[in-house]
Automatic annotation (TrEMBL):
One of its GO terms (molecular function) is RNA binding. Residues 1-55, 351-389 are annotated as: Disordered. Pfam families: 5-FTHF_cyc-lig (PF01812). Residues 1-21 have a biased composition (Low complexity). This is Methenyltetrahydrofolate synthase domain-containing protein. It comes from Micromonas pusilla (Picoplanktonic green alga). Keywords: RNA-binding. Residues 369-389 have a biased composition (Basic and acidic residues). It comes from the Eukaryota.
């Protein structure tokens, strides 16, 4: 199997005319979703709460499965020799570090809602201060389009992006119902005029109801200037980070690299609490997997840490099809679409990785509840939303 078949470079696929990284930006070729200031209030608060509840319900089964994975991995670690040279294709050694950080955050009470923080990107005290420290940096000020993960501790970052008049790019949680969506003052004019609209657009419910989803072609034409991702733990020496163990941040990065939305020079930033920092190279970079994404910059409520490039592991160059399991492909539609496109373009059959047992995504009934919650749900929905079109 050739390298080009295993790892697709952006140039291997037909692309739309790329947008410049700097200068004026045109809106994505979709109808604008205008939100009037009068459409906010108690109904929208209830809608956001309903969406969040539905999302938490949908995540519950996945968290149970992740808990079982961690328990199994820790039991094997206690019985096996923890050898860095031992084949560990799923990075099971990471679970001990994750658990230590989650336990520490709960024990010291720096964890914030939703709790417990185990098996989540953990929310933390003063997450808003970490966001403020990031927004004061020149790299944030210069960015016009910022991709931010949908997790709770980065909510203040998403708000800062919109308040600064920038374009917010955010993925669907777990890529379960779609790909990436964008929000901006141009797409949702009321963001600039109404604090309640702004508040809602920083939530997953707001992105679901007001965000403009991007197609693959639109994603190719887009350019993102800064990536902000959440972490469970991050090494201050190498920038190596651990997420919650599901690999979606890595998938998002790989897809964006493959589409040409970002490149190796695009800054990757994480905002975390100081208790999530691993000092002195605690993460053995020799044990990282090919798809693991290191960060260039760590921002906490008290510190700003730039990573030494000499100590940083290489960033992934795209999607490594030979390590993607059939089960992961079955879960994420955008991956199946991209795979089919690559195979048709290159005239090859791409490899797949070994089978794995994955936590289930939202079942059909839960997805329906999430869609209804994002639209307000219940009777009279169409009438109440009339001002948003």
């Amino acid at each position: 199997m050739s390298v080009s078949a295993r790892l697709l470079s952006p140039a291997a696929l037909p692309r739309a005319t790329p947008a410049p990284r700097r200068g004026a930006r045109s809106d994505p070729p979709r109808a604008r979703r205008r939100v009037s200031a009068s459409s906010t209030g108690d109904d929208d608060d209830a809608s956001s709460s309903a969406y969040d509840r539905a999302r938490l319900e949908a995540d519950a089964s996945a968290m149970r499965a992740q808990r079982e994975r961690m328990t199994d991995a820790l039991e094997r670690r206690n019985t096996d020799v923890d050898d860095a040279a031992r084949d560990d294709p799923h990075g099971e050694w990471k679970w001990a570090i994750r658990k230590r950080i989650w336990d520490r955050m709960e024990d010291t009470n720096v964890a914030q809602f939703p709790r417990p923080v185990h098996h989540r990107i953990p929310n933390f005290v003063n997450a808003d201060k970490a966001a403020a420290n990031l927004t004061a940096l020149q790299c944030f000020k210069d960015a016009e389009c910022v991709k931010v993960n949908p997790d709770t501790p980065q909510k203040a970052v998403r708000r800062a992006v919109l308040e600064a008049g920038k374009t917010l790019m955010t993925p669907q949680p777990r890529l379960r119902t779609g790909f990436f969506s964008v929000l901006s003052e141009q797409l949702v004019p009321a963001v600039a005029a109404d604090a309640e609209v702004l508040k809602k657009c920083c939530t997953s419910a707001g992105v679901a109801s007001h965000g403009v989803p991007l197609s693959l072609d639109e994603m190719r034409a887009a350019k993102c200037d800064l990536l902000v991702i959440g972490s469970c733990a991050v090494d201050v020496k190498s920038g190596a980070r651990l997420g919650k163990g599901e690999g979606f941040a890595e998938l998002e990065y790989a897809i964006m690299r493959m589409m040409g939305t970002i490149d190796d020079s695009t800054l990757v930033v994480t905002t975390v609490h100081d208790t999530q920092l691993l000092e002195g190279g605690e993460i053995d970079t020799r044990r990282l997997l090919r798809h693991d994404v290191p960060v260039d910059l760590i921002v906490t409520p008290t510190r700003t840490i730039w990573i030494d490039k000499a100590a940083q592991p290489a960033k992934p160059e795209g999607i490594y099809w030979d390590i993607l399991s059939p089960q992961k492909l079955a879960q994420v539609k955008v991956l199946r679409d991209l795979r089919a496109e690559v195979e048709a373009t290159l005239g090859v059959t791409l490899p797949t990785g070994p089978d794995e047992t994955l936590p289930p995504l939202a079942v059909r009934a839960e997805k329906k509840k999430m869609r209804e919650a994002s639209r307000g749900g219940g009777r009279g929905r169409g009438e109440r939303r009339g001002g948003r079109r």
